[in-house]
Design brief:
heterodimer; A: alpha+beta; five-stranded antiparallel β-sheet; 4 helices; 5 strands; about 40% helix; B: about 5% helix; about 35% strand
Amino acid sequence: MYQPGILGRRKCSWKPWMVALIITAVLLALAIIIGLLVYFLAYDQKTYYYQASFLIPSIKYSSDLSVEQSRLRTTLKEKLSNEIDVIFQRSSLKHHYVKSQVVNFRPSNDGLKADMLIKFQFPLNNVDTLKRQADSILHKKLQSTEIFLKIDISLPYLREMNAAQAENILNSDCGLGMEYPQTAR
Amino acid sequence: IADGKPADKASWPWQSSLQVDGVHLCGASLIGSQWLLTSAHCFDTYKNPKLWTVSFGTTLSRPLMTRKMASIIIHENYAAHKHDDDIAVVKLVSPVLFSENLRRVCLPDATFQVLPKSKVFVTGWGALRANGPFPNSLQEVEIEIISNDVCNQVNVYGGAISSGMICAGFLTGKLDACEGDSGGPLVISNDRNIWYLLGIVSWGIDCGKENKPGIYTRVTHYRNWIKSKTNI
């Protein structure tokens, strides 16, 4: 029986630099795939706009609140926006909250009603959960006594608005333009 | 605008350009989603609104948005080639959607008083100097209010400035509005960075000439007329 000849080990013809190149290419491809996955899952955010309506029992409606750029109107608008800023910037949604703006004041039997627009950036795959979170944060916060804002029970939850319409409303105030360079004053 | 500088994007989001056959002829200010305020003399030649196109945004060549004109309402007492009552409102065929780059300017109350030497801005795509080139990018320059008394002195405009006009610029000349800026805004900001439309670029002798500052239609003087035409 012929002892089968042992095949001479085939000499490996891959040069070290080829091996290094292939490993680098594979690692690079993996990094890109993982990077894209992380981006689209965690970072690919979209802007969402929600209408909210609040009740301010301690303030009576006055016609001055419908005069554009009146001091009463601008002061109260700023106060409400600051209130909503504080609520969300101290919440689990602080990385998603962008801004809020009063769009309208309305008279009501229980005081004053304020319609607001709230702007968030949410990852596409988690919108409903985060929107529910926003609702529950507002409900929890506005139940506490020390805050002057209350939920308007006739419109208790955030309602989504399309972007163009929301941006139209957010930018419908007059006179917002160049920030006067402070030094120039 | 003589001796000015290019405006940053969205600095003057109410500024619009009135064009015929794609050529910029006048400026205008957005005062409502469907209304512009401009000068009556812009329509001395082309009175048919259908000939005009309105463009928005900081550059003429690539506008943010354009609209056609539905109607032009010129002040009843305006007479061509005269300076009095040089004001007109323009209705757009459809409302614009406001955005960070497209907003309206505030209109002052009729009682609003502005003091001489108050700092104001005038903006436009007019010539960069008398008989000079026209820019593609919106230009801005900061000037000052000059009292009508000073402007009516013999060596300035010798009594030609009426109460419906406002004078702004410098007696030393240089910084000024120029040909093609007509109809554009002269604005002032309040202590909360809210801008109000004080004047509409109307006339002047040359651009940036000594003792010949720019003359603007005084918006407060026509505040009730504007309200009666636009309900704004």
